[in-house]
Amino acid sequence: VFSFIHVAGFRDFRECRDFYQREGLLDGAGLCLEYLEDMGSAYRASDLVVSRAGAMTCLELLEFRRRCLLIPLARSTEAHQWANARCLEQLGIAKILEEGLGLDARLDAAIKEELANPRRDEVAGTAAPRPTLAAVAQSLISGKLRAD
Fold first, then answer.
1. Count of CB atoms situated within 10 Å of the CB of 42
2. Where are any strands of DSSP class E within the chain?
3. Rounded Cα–Cα distance for residues 56 and 131 (Å)
4. What stretch of H or E contains 16?
């Protein structure tokens, strides 16, 4: 059974909610929210996260060790979301999808692939150790992960 939570934000909430209602996706299978206070519960409940690649989100994904499909915001300052996404990709947590033409189809295929093929380290229970706070701080200092 596929279910989802979409935290859309203030600007996009109404449009997203209306779309999901028209498609009949809010009838038990999905939830569209403007804001979610307890992201930790949502991360713990998820098999896969689809998200932008802001620094706080990337740190949360590291903390909760969630597989993710990241779609870096193309217009982010100095392409920092790409740098953030690459850090998670190198740790084996993320796959990166580029914005643009055909994203819907590429995202659909990527979600199906991720959910059909759990990563070997997660299945075996031998996921790579969580990076230390010092390692994350060093990434921030070296510019590999941007806080803005």
1. 17
2. 4-7, 30-33, 49-51, 68-70, 94-96
3. 15
4. helix 9-22
Q: Measure the CA–CA gap between 93 and 8, rounded to whole angstroms.
A: 23
The residues, ordered by sequence, that sit 6+ positions from 60 with a Cβ below 8 Å of its Cβ are 39, 40, 43
With 0.90 as the threshold, say if the pTM is over it.
Answer: no
Q: Is pLDDT of 40 > 50?
A: yes
- 2-16, 82-96, 130-144: least confidently modelled range: 130-144
- What per-residue confidence (pLDDT) applies to 75? 85
Q: Is the pLDDT of residue 81 over 80?
A: yes
Cβ atoms of 59 and 136 within 8 Å: the answer is yes
Structure tokens at 86: 């690459």
Q: What is the spatial distance between Cα 24 and Cα 108, in angstroms, rounded to a whole number?
A: 18
